[in-house]
Amino acid sequence: MAHLLGAENISVSYGIRTVLDSVSLGLNEGDRIGMVGRNGDGKSTLMRLLAMRTTPDEGRVTKRGDVNIGYLDQQDVLDGDLPVGVAIVGEAADHEWAANPRIREIMAGLVEDVEWHAKISSLSGGQRRRVALAKLLIEPHDVIMLDEPTNHLDVEGVAWLARHLKERWRSNEGAFLVVTHDRWFLDEVCTRTWEVHDGTVDPFEGGYAAYVLARAERDKMAAVVESKRQQLVKKELAWLRRGAPARTSKPKFRIEAANDLISDVPEPRDTVALSKMATARLGKDVLDLEKVSYTPPPREGDAGNDGGAPLFDNITLRLAPGERLGLVGVNGAGKTTLLRLLNGEIQPDSGKLKRGKTVQTAILTQDVRELDDVLDLRVIEVIQRERQVFSVGGREVSAGQLVEQLGFSKEKQWTPVRDLSGGERRRLQLLRLLVGEPNVLMLDEPTNDLDTDTLAAVEDVLDGWPGTLVVVSHDRYLLERVTDHQMALLGDGKLRGLPGGVDQYLQLREEALASGEVAGTATATGAGSGQGQSGAAAGGSPAQSAKSSHSEAEKRQAKKDLNRIERQLTKLAQQADKLKEQMNDAGSKADVDFALLADLNAKLQDVSSEQEELEMEWLEASEVLE
């Protein structure tokens, strides 16, 4: 692979703090690299250096003479006075760029719903981000560097960007480097991972899942003393192995290695125990929205506007004790408004909110203004004002231990709140809510400004939290990790269940866009542990039923096949265990019978082959049912 650009012994310091210390690395054609690391460890600094937007204190950055680098900063760098069209394509006539199918595809994927002649300053944060991405992607860059590209993008936007980056070049052409906290995105598009930490950069093969496994292996082999960090890595690994089905389609040797590492790790959540605790704290009734309709009031200055179409139209949602619900939907679909309705901040136009007698809610908003009243306090003092000792996951921890669990070192605990970074304030904001001991917690985009290690720590805290949880997020990894089921706001005033998770939501949106209609027409009710989903959720979407390529007879047969295959796999697993025991017994004797061992091994190989064939049949049958 041809070399594109590289860094030789680069060092960068800010005051007395060294961010990068004699780092050497490079990008070659075909590289698809994701950067991870804690906030403040130098990810953005390294990217700016490689993009030649700044220079190192020591060392140098070199690139091949003809290499064209495209760079997307975290900050909004577009001229607010420019119209959208001029900001993207300059003064080029419409027919000039429209003749290029690649540019047309980018425009359709990112800015189709953005007013072409609107000024940049009038756009929302998400729209400005998509305009900046479109401007970058239509240009013929050899290397693309993206610093937090998924910020302000909804689930569809993130999925589109992932698909575009995978299809933009052939496998041995071009290169990109991306910094993002979106772990699904890292797994989807990256084939290598750089971990930036303590002034160095450690390379790993594979995306985020492979990086987690490799880091756990590295820590185990080196007997790293960082026990708390290692436990978080192993617990995250346990989720990767036991989580969503799509994440288990990895090479067999990787799965076996993961099983060895997590054999002594418990499930991320003890669902039964948490459910019992939640019922004890909450009683039977939590929060119920019954036949609620709501139309937002007209914006200031919109004279004569009655508020437009209703945001919610006769929706019903029932939250059970200990339920963990994830909400998805495009920007503007009403996710934040739904949280405010549940929290009692606004009242519906019709219908009602029923609230249990013991319910105590807390909501994490998208901004951090809640910390304005404690700016002069230190981090530890903010938490100690609530209590000195807390119960987490069935054990008591001090305020200092709890603060440290969410990434505040002993030195950082004594930092004034006003001096914290955006990510650190976000962590403190969440921690302050948790120590208030609410029994219904609502999180609105909780991943904003958090690095992957902090996200894992937050998830670890939420695993032992026994209340009802409602999460609004475009981070599908987080949704699948901390919630048990998801629901969607599809922009038609309805709320529907997603038994197929985020993948089903994306499919519904694609079908709706293809047909020119809004998908989903049935009201859905919540489903917690042990609760049934609504008829609309259980039966799937009308669009899915209409477009299904398999008859009902085929589906019935597939279901029978699945039951048969699962029974056979159970029997084969028992046979394999028995053969392994016989091999252990034969190998432990003083006079080893090698002929018997060879015969037993051959039988074990036959069983393994049969298992693999049945697993393929199982996958084929499950695809028919999907």
Name a few traits of the molecule.
6-stranded mixed sheet; single chain; P-loop_NTPase; 22 helices; AAA+_ATPase; alpha/beta; ATP-binding; 626 residues; ABC_transporter-like_CS; Rossmann fold; nucleotide-binding; 20 strands; 3 domains
What does this entry show, briefly?
The chain is an alpha/beta fold and 626 residues long. The strands form five sheets. It has a six-stranded mixed sheet, with helices on both faces. Strands 14-17-18-12-19-20 form a six-stranded mixed sheet, sandwiched between helices.
Strand content: 15-25%
Our Rg estimate from Cα atoms comes to 27 Å
What do the pLDDT scores average to? 79
How many helix segments?
Answer: 22
- Based on DSSP secondary structure assignment, what is the total number of beta strands? 20
**End-to-end span in angstroms?**
40 Å
Largest β sheet strand count, sense and barrel closure: 6 strands, mixed
Q: Which geometry do the CA atoms define? A: globular
Number of spatially distinct domains? 3
Q: Give start-end ranges of low-pLDDT stretches.
A: 244-251, 301-306, 518-548
Helix content: 40-55%
Indicate the CATH class of the largest domain: Alpha Beta
The fourth-level CATH homologous superfamily of the largest domain is P-loop containing nucleotide triphosphate hydrolases
CATH topology of the largest domain: Rossmann fold
Counting helices, strands and paired strands, the structural category is: alpha/beta
Widest sheet: strand order? 5-6-7-3-8-9
Second-tier CATH architecture of the largest domain = 3-Layer(aba) Sandwich
Biased composition (Basic and acidic residues): 549-562
Protein name: ABC transporter ATP-binding protein
Region (Disordered): 522-562
Keywords: ATP-binding, Nucleotide-binding
